[in-house]
Design brief:
Elements (H helix, E strand, L loop, with lengths): L10 H17 L7 H24 L3 H24 L5 H15 L10 H14 L3 H7 L5 H24 L10 H26 L1 H38 L1
Helix pairs in contact: 1-2, 1-8, 1-9, 2-8, 3-4, 3-7, 4-6, 5-7, 8-9
Length: about 240
């Protein structure tokens, strides 16, 4: 079974598990002179340095992160709504959804992974493109879609205001990704690159790679147990709070 870090892993947990993984890779460096593992180690080290810097900055203006999450949710809502209408049992609605989808696909949800200033630029341009006559006409056949556009526009304005307030505190954000996004990048790298590679090599060359695979597997299993325990505790706390 390929190790996989739980999707609910927090920034703090990603920071911790990636630190331990670096130590594991370091300990196997002499025994496994593997160029791919060396590259992975370098990438993790780079992202962890950026994560540490971003975490310190984030603590100074947490409201900006909240606003970024709100506009991210608003953008995703546009994509989800269009996707749900593509197979709608109404030709006019279906055709309209495809028209809007062509525009959205020019941007993609991946713009949410960009640095703040680039993400803002893309969203503002998208909002302008959504005002094009043929898009507005198509959107008129999608019930409630204009409300979702308004929600995204409002979320972007709120982000801009908060961004300005943070800059007035001399906080530099636009050169870096926020901690939440960097932790996602690290998690994706571990789950989709490093772990898959180590699992594959442990099957192809078990004598050489079973040792490091077993260490990684044990670490991920322990981390996921901790994450699940944290979530259960949080849910229990919320339930007790609502009862009282």
């Amino acid at each position: 079974m390929t190790p996989k870090i739980n999707s609910n892993c927090s920034v703090k947990e990603i920071n911790s598990v990636s630190k331990t993984i670096l130590k594991i890779l370091e300990s196997w460096q002499d025994e496994l002179p593997d160029s791919f593992l060396t590259l992975q180690k370098s990438k993790i080290e780079t992202y962890r340095r950026r994560l540490t810097k971003a975490t310190k900055s984030s603590l100074k203006c947490t409201s900006l992160i909240e606003c970024d999450e709100e506009r991210g949710n608003a953008l995703r809502a546009l994509f989800y709504e269009v996707k749900s209408k593509i197979h709608w049992p109404d030709d006019q609605i279906c055709k309209a959804a495809y028209t809007v989808k062509e525009l959205l696909d020019n941007y993609g949800v991946d713009i949410l992974q960009l640095p703040y200033h680039m993400e803002s630029s893309n969203i503002k341009t998208l909002l302008q493109d959504l005002k094009n006559d043929h898009i507005m006409e198509a959107a008129s056949y999608l019930p409630g879609f204009h409300i979702l556009i308004d929600n995204l526009s409002l979320a972007q304005r709120n982000f801009d205001l908060t961004y300005g307030e943070c800059f007035s505190q001399d906080i530099e954000f636009d050169a870096e990704l926020p901690a939440t996004k960097l932790s996602e990048i690290i998690k994706e790298q571990l789950n989709k690159e490093l772990f898959i590679y180590i699992k594959t090599m442990s099957q192809a060359q078990p004598e050489e790679y079973n040792g490091i695979y077993n260490q990684i597997q044990a670490l991920v299993s322990s981390t996921n147990t901790t994450i699940k325990k944290r979530i259960r505790t949080s849910v229990k706390r919320e339930v007790n709070s609502s009862v009282h």
